Amino acid sequence: MAMSKQRGFPRGEGPWPWLTAGSVAISLLMLGALLLLLAVRGLGHFWPAPVTLVELQDGSRFAGMAVKEAPLPGGGGEERLYHTANRDLEGSPWTWVEVATIEAERHPDDLVVLERQRWGAFHGRLMALRGGDDGVEGQRKVGREDALVEGEAAWQSLVARLAELEALRNELARLRDDTILPLASRLADGENATLAAELARAEARLRELQMTMESGEVLLESVDGTRLWQPIEGIVRAQRPNAMSVPDKLAAWGQGVWRFLAEGPRAANSAGGVWPAIFGTVLMVLLMSVLVAPFGVLAAIYLNEVAHQGRMTRLVRIAVRNLAGVPSIVYGVFGLGVFVYGIGGSLDEWFFADTLPSPTFGTGGLLWASLTLALLTLPVVIVATEEGLARIPDHQREGALALGATRLEMLTRVVLPMATPAMLTGMILAVARAAGEVAPLMLVGVAKLAPQVPVDGNFPFLHLERKFMHLGYHIYDTAFHGSDVQAALPLAYATALLLVLVILGLNLTAIFLRHHLRSRHGRLPRH
């Protein structure tokens, strides 16, 4: 019998395995491309880029770092964007230049890059340094000729002085956070002569340190010849990137990344680090997990193990699944009305009436943000836990009951340990969603700038009423509400990469714990 000609796809699974494998590969490539973009744009910001001395055909010149190129409107060439800094001298730290008008580009080793607390960065040359203040504040004048240090000696003196200033700033921060603020908080609760004397001594030491910092200034010169005196205490860091070797740049890059992780923000979040935002994000997610886990697990146990499986139970399940699709801003409005104004306002009236009208719990804070996100992620935990409970075979329950266990013992010693991996799956999904939410947090407690973390040495140590910083909101504020978006954009990329890594770290912790419990209690059969 002649075989008929085969039409269409061959027998078997056809092209579907290839399509699914291709979809997974494309998804992984897109994820890798996203992480690579964040890493290059974010981590590359901390690399000491060379400073170019640009001379134009009209005779003018400037010093800056090349950022990007773009075609001219209408074609006919390209223009290049330079970060020229010197906002106090030129008005704008950015300059667009037609590439065709550039006469020459050089990289002199004596060009310095100063990071200042005011006016941003400075690009130019260091001409001289003097170490004292010969007049009152606001009336600085040049002293004796031998008081000036010039040339290479001025650069070495500036580096040493900046190292001393960094140590003084750290001591000031420790004195303010660990001594003065706790003493002032304790004095607010009641008058105490001993505490008042300690606070006076600490404040005297603070003024002494501040006076020590207010000494010395440097003479700077831009490449067009403009000079200015800059107080040394207003300089955060100084570099000569054109004279740095590759090991020096690697060391500077590592120090920049560490400062980004360990310091607080400066200059309206366009400079400095994100440590308060890291701490606030992790603390909020952990507190949210502690709040949502028991309620989600208990609700799933009731729906699957206790409640009568009728029409009402099915309606409740449908409602829970629909709640998972409600926009997050709706939960934020609910948290603002119920948690902040409702419960928080009542707590202020009952326990903090002496501080009214200044609210204590009647305003956004860490507790209300965690409760709002717990409510937001509650349906995810319920659904994941209930699916894990439904996969446990009935003979496991029946066997425990046949051996004489009560229903409570069967649930706590047989069912729940086997369903723990499913519970952790729900927590993983909850953490992944809660850590990236921004919209509800804007209503219930997140702040643009909250340099003090909600944990300190004062009772009750964890201050749930305080506002906090969040990495997601920090990205939003830096990228869209900064005074210089172009300068803050690399920090937004770095913060986005950090947020992804924080979520990945939290999820990996739960995944490893789930794997351990799954290997301990055995895998559940698949339906």
From TrEMBL:
Keywords: Cell membrane, Coiled coil, Membrane, Transmembrane, Transmembrane helix, Transport. It is found in: Cell inner membrane; Cell membrane. The chain crosses the membrane at residues 274-303, 323-344, 364-384, 414-435, 491-513. SUPFAM superfamilies: MetI-like (SSF161098). Residues 158-219 form a coiled coil. CDD domains: TM_PBP2. Pfam families: BPD_transp_1 (PF00528). The keyword Signal does not apply. It comes from the Bacteria. Belongs to the binding-protein-dependent transport system permease family. CysTW subfamily. This is Phosphate transport system permease protein PstA.
